[in-house]
Fold this sequence. Notes:
51% of the residues lie in helices and 11% in strands. The protein is an alpha/beta fold. It has two domains: 20-244, no CATH class; 265-449 and 481-614, Alkaline Phosphatase, subunit A (3-Layer(aba) Sandwich), CATH 3.40.720.10. α19 links the parallel β6 and β7.
Amino acid sequence: MKNIKNKFLKLKNSSKKYLKKVKEEHLVREYLKHNVLFITFVLTCIINSTILRFFCMHTLENYLAIKPIMADLAVIIIAGSFGYLFKPKNRFTYLLILDIFFTAICMINSIYYTFYTSFASVSMLSLTQYIGEVGDAVVENVVQLKDLLYIIGPVILIFVHYKLKKINYYKKVEIKSERKKRTIKTLSVGGALMILFLVTLSSLDVTRFVKQWNREYIVMRFGIYIYQANDVVTSVQPKINSLFGYDQAKKKFADYFKNTDEVQTNEYTNIFEGKNVIVIHGESMQTNAMDLEFNGQEVTPTLNKLAKEGMFFSNFYSQVSVGTSSDTELTFTTSLMPTQSGTAFVSYYDRSYVSIPKLMRDKGYYTFSMHANNADFWNRRAMHESLGYNKFYSKKDYNVTKENTIGLGLSDKEFFSQSIPKIEKEAQKHDNWYSLLIMLTNHTPFSEVDKYGEFDVSLKETVTKEDGSEEEVTYPYMEGTKLGNYFKSIHYADGALGEFIDALDEKGLLDNTVLILYGDHDARLPKKEYNRLYNYNKEQDSTLDSGDPNYKEYDSYQYELGRKVPFIIWSKDMAETKLNQEVTNVMGMYDVMPTLGNMFGFYNKYQLGHDIFNIKDNNIVVFPNGNWVTNKVYYNSQKEAYLSLTGEAINEEEIQKNNNYSSKLLDVSNDMIVFNLLKEDNDNENKMLEYQEKGK
Ligand code: GP9
Ligand code: MN
């Protein structure tokens, strides 16, 4: 301790001395005098990147954000520092090239943002059609004066250089032997700034950076230059991944699917043939919320009603990796698993997929998706096309204002109500249609509680007092907790869903329609709050002691198994039919495509899941991290531990067999995406369709 104190004092003294020296010897003035060109370079680049953020994201918080300035500055200084290695003339050329490069990044992003309200990605360069789109728009009105403003940066640098040359500045200040020293000193300043920036990052910043799906967020935290560098890495990585191992992957793939040719039927085969479809992507909806009531009020009355009247899969899991929402979309539509690195939506959007919308399209359906968020979130603009949606209604098709926004974007109630006329229009134009609506409001951090409407999550009890009179006592219970806020939020989303179904019915849009709803993933809420939920000690407003006779165990297994999400198939007239049932066999998102395929009459030879009505209690749900669950056992691959779900002893051989099955499945799935193994099949199929078309 004493040691640390001494060191601290030493550091304090030496920095004091240094500051004194700086003051006495006018070091700042001297530095400025000797580095005019470099300083001009730094200033023009940092002003450009700040202007870019200023034009794109107009909130006070964004204007004043220090993190992106620090990051941009560090990058500019580090890159520019190498200029000192050159003699002045070449140094100018070097800095000018850098300046033009940084300016180009700002300009391209500025134009891209004007058009797409998001930042540019080099991976999109292969999408020529978008360039075409942008090209047309450029002629019309996309390049605005503000996008040209950035050019002033390099112009100033050129101007300053010639001015300096004129007054013989370089000859006066340049000392050849100092070049290396100046480079190292400048590099160290840039490096120190970068370290300072890195330590300010939160874990959320880091995960968002890795996922690269919310580009605005990354630019706001990491600055435009780091964003673009990260974008290049994420765009190039899939290309590198697919360079090696193609032959082996192809062989494994052929082996895996060699016995899956025959189509199995059951009592639900073709039961929905010809029906229209509305798929609802229920953001962060968890099954455990459906079982709960607070003071006699259900948390999710709409979901409960749908589950009661329709087909409810109560032992159902999503299978997401870092791609969360987008991973679920992938697995739902293709019966493939998320990729082992990156996310399919961002890194592998240009692969060939066999998907529900494509197969429905082959059956004559018109397919469209709807999400009132930025179309570039999770790269949906590109990926929804790859997945076979004819049309994607995104933020630009909705009226989004400050008033109707909650959390990430347009509130679910508004989203649904503005979607109705769009669905109506499509329904009038097309005999058969398939749609996907992606909800948004029930998204972490569930903090805009005042916008969710009234839903009390306290505990109210009526007690009889000594004099016989009754009094209502309120205990805080889940009020003020994150889990409590989640219940308020999902209650809001559930209400929005209820209103939507009523409105659809009023318009007659439910008459020949099947509604399919899934929760996209769990809400990732703290385990200890579930402990409070299930073990509330109202007298002390705390959690019951584990020794208490009423204590219900909620360990990490319970928590992991509690991540179930609802999956419901519902239509207006289903309550009286054999379809009205609860399916309790364990099922995963990858089983949806085979199960629905049988019901609607389409088939994907390369599905990884199974029709739940064929596989029944023999099913296994594999998670991207290698965990898996069956009706009998849950296996955690990180801990290499398992839990029997029936109380029966578990056979080690079975664990081994399932581990092998899981790792094979995950490998094949990953290879299919990375090496684009479905391309040939799809190409052949397309040729077949063209041939049939021509033959008509
Ligand atoms: C983004 C939304 C949320 O548009 O779908 O994605 P998530 O954070 O849940 O993956
Ligand atoms: Mn989600």
